[in-house]
Design a protein that fits this description.
The complex is a heterodimer of chains A (115) and B (114).
Chain A (H helix, E strand, L loop, with lengths): L3 E4 L2 E4 L5 E7 L6 E7 L5 E8 L5 E2 L8 E7 L2 E6 L8 E8 L7 E2 L3 E5 L1
Chain B lengths: L3 E2 L4 E5 L4 E7 L6 E7 L6 E7 L4 E4 L2 E6 L4 E6 L8 E8 L8 E3 L3 E6 L1
The chains are: A mainly beta (115), B mainly beta (114).
């Protein structure tokens, strides 16, 4: 399957600051990338769908001004958590998908802790 | 509204035996189903999938069965190995051309004991 990297793998930030998480496709140029978050012992919740060169599509209930997504190239999508608060502490995971495929291949995730 | 459900939060199986993980869905539009394995603090790893036009797909020790009339699928792992201990998520999708979103179940934690 595809190889996806995320950076950083772990970050602690203070309340009110912004944090950027990178998601890179290492072996093929993904048409679409997805961003998920997972709270402890819960399922993966889709936050947004990201396509290169266009605005991300956010799921209902996800604040687009708080979770800024940029997909500037076929291999890189970034998620910026702006003005982070403790309730934003979570595990953020990205995935990639080729056009026409169902399978998504996931990155290793980023643990965000907001103090 | 939980469209994909895994009603067993945990399962314990002895090494060498069969592990059966179950998943139910409510949306009859789903046409593709996938199973992922996840370790703590890691991203999910794709295991196996099945199209709605099939009722069985096999890959090594992993077999997925689909019962469309019951809106039920299951993952069989035979024989189970200690390394299979992880959380297993089923996911369902509707084909949408360029991008197909996945709806995940709540996960089942499998523990394979010696």
């Amino acid at each position: 399957g595809a190889v996806v990297s995320q950076h950083p793998s772990w970050v602690i930030c203070k309340s009110g600051t912004s944090v950027k998480i990178e998601c890179r496709s290492l072996d093929f140029q993904a048409t679409t990338m997805f961003w998920y978050r997972q709270f402890p012992k819960q399922s993966l919740m889709l936050m947004a769908t990201s396509n290169e060169g266009s605005k991300a599509t956010y799921e209902q209930g996800v604040e687009k001004d708080k979770f800024l997504i940029n997909h500037a190239s076929l291999t890189l999508s970034t998620l910026t958590v702006t003005s982070a608060h403790p309730e934003d502490s979570s595990f953020y995971i990205c995935s990639e998908q080729l056009a026409g495929a169902y399978e998504q291949y996931f990155g290793p995730g980023t643990r965000l802790t907001v103090t | 509204d939980q469209q994909v459900k895994q009603n067993s939060p945990s399962l314990s199986v002895q090494e060498g035996r069969i592990s059966i993980l179950n998943c139910d869905y409510t949306n009859s539009m789903f046409d593709y189903f996938l199973w992922y394995k996840k370790y703590p603090a890691e991203g999910p790893t794709f295991l196996i999938s099945i199209s709605s036009i099939k009722d069985k797909n096999e890959d090594g020790r992993f077999t997925v069965f689909l019962n469309k009339s019951a809106k039920h699928l299951s993952l069989h792992i035979v024989p189970s190995q200690p390394g299979d201990s992880a959380v297993y998520f089923c996911a369902a999708s509707v084909f949408r051309g360029t991008a197909s979103k996945l709806t995940f179940g709540t996960g089942t934690r499998l523990q394979v004991t010696l």
